[in-house]
Amino acid sequence: MSEIKTGFDVIQNIISGKWKSIILYHLGYENKRTKDLLQICEGVSHKVLNEQLKQLQMDGLINRTVFPEVMPIKVEYSITSYGRSFLPLLKDMCDRGDIHFQKLHHQSIQHKVCQL
């Protein structure tokens, strides 16, 4: 991790990584199991997904709940209230990305993230 000098540095460290923003955004709407997140993050490996989830947990943005009474053991992820505070920022970033894409390519972007 590089030296933290500004609030931008902090936010970049928290949501850096290809999948963290997408994971957090989707957990803002409903709890998800690992298999659900693997489908949402199309192309991510199980290993990378687990790393991203652990980092989000360590930063206090998501919770991991294990249901040991269910076989096979069920694991579910949910957003924390602190994580929920990032949703307006993520929505704005997604909307701004759409506008930029449209400006560069003169066409609408088709995606699954911002239109939940």
Describe the structure.
The protein has 116 residues and is an alpha+beta fold. The protein contains six helices and three strands. Strands 1-3-2 form a three-stranded antiparallel β-sheet. Strand 2 and strand 3 form a beta hairpin.
Cα Rg: 15 Å
Strand content: 5-15%
Uncertain runs are: none
Envelope shape: globular
Give the oligomer, counting copies of the same chain as homo and different chains as hetero. single chain
Helix count, DSSP H or I runs of 4 or more residues = 6
Elements, N to C (H/E): HHEHHEEHH
Please give the largest β-sheet: 3 strands, antiparallel
Let me know the number of strands: 3
Which bin fits the share of residues in helices? 40-55%
Q: Indicate the structural class.
A: alpha+beta
Q: Give the mean pLDDT.
A: 88
Strand order of the largest sheet: 1-3-2
Instruction: Give the distance, in angstroms, between the N- and C-terminal Cα atoms.
Output: 32 Å
Highlighted features:
116 residues; alpha+beta; three-stranded antiparallel β-sheet; 6 helices; globular
Please give the structural blueprint.
Elements: H1 7-15, H2 20-27, E1 32-33, H3 34-40, H4 46-58, E2 62-67, E3 74-79, H5 81-84, H6 87-105
Antiparallel strand pairs: 1-3, 2-3
